Amino acid sequence: MKTRPALASALRNLLAAPLVAVLAMLLPADSALAGDGVITSYRAYIGQEDLSASDGLRLKAVRDILRQDRANFHKFGIRQRGDTADDYFTSAGNRQLFERIPIRCSPRVTAAVLEGGAAFGVTVYEDYILVEFARR
Q1: For residues 41 and 48, is the Cβ–Cβ distance under 8 A?
Q2: What CA–CA distance (Å, rounded) separates 45 from 66?
Q3: Model confidence over 64-85: pLDDT tens digits?
């Protein structure tokens, strides 16, 4: 027979599991609190405005185009249908993250970003940025 402290401990463990499951369901999927290292996630439609820097020069790297997309969204109010908000790249300082960490994407995604005219899911982790074709 279990002692009273052991019984109390077993009861706490039994009640804690459902509580943890409920809390996990309540946390947003793109929350850094979710423990998966995600800073933010958003959908980006890369339009013609995103393919050129503010000075008009054509951008030639995925990281530069993604950064321009977020500057257009937050700073210049240029938004294409399919763009969604994020709460991280609101400042120029935070947009510098595109320069500091690796961008991970397939060769097909890279080619599509450089060409423009497509939507992408962007997930920003603490140590890399994942770019994929957006799911419909």
Answers
A1: no
A2: 10
A3: 999 999 999 999 999 999 999 9
